[in-house]
Amino acid sequence: MRDFARGGARPDPLGLAFDAARGAAVRGEVPVGAVVMRDGVVLAVAGNRPRTDRDPTAHAEILAIRAACAALDDERLTGCDLYVTLEPCAMCAGAISFARIRRLYFAASDPKGGAVENGPRFFNQPTCHHAPEVYGGLRESEAAALLRDFFRDRRP
Ligand SMILES: [Zn+2]
Questions:
Q1: Full-model pTM
Q2: 86: how many CB neighbours lie within 10 A of its CB?
Q3: Alpha helices, DSSP H only, in 27-87?
């Protein structure tokens, strides 16, 4: 747990999420990173790991939510905010809702796999019982470039 509130340095949660996304790219993962923060304290930082862990559910958001729950010893992340470099998919949107995340901040929107502004628009469904406040499009060009470079470099 990194306590910026006491350390004095201003946390940059989205910057940390971008660092985690770059770390994921180095492992050959789709570059997505996520950070959970509460009251100025970073509770969890995670990058995508499905290939590394042989686990299709090992998206950055899921791993960050699990780690934050472990850090707080709670199955809910009441009052916590999630920062992600890419619009969450349907699975992660579900986890965000179940975790009772307060605010969701994300960078690039994802017309192909996103489920917040695109596709199922999970938080707008009547069967969604907790929706976070959503702030999208932050540092969008940086996030889009990260993904574009990753997929370009993977082409033979
Ligand atoms: Zn996901």
A1: 0.92
A2: 28
A3: 50-53, 60-72
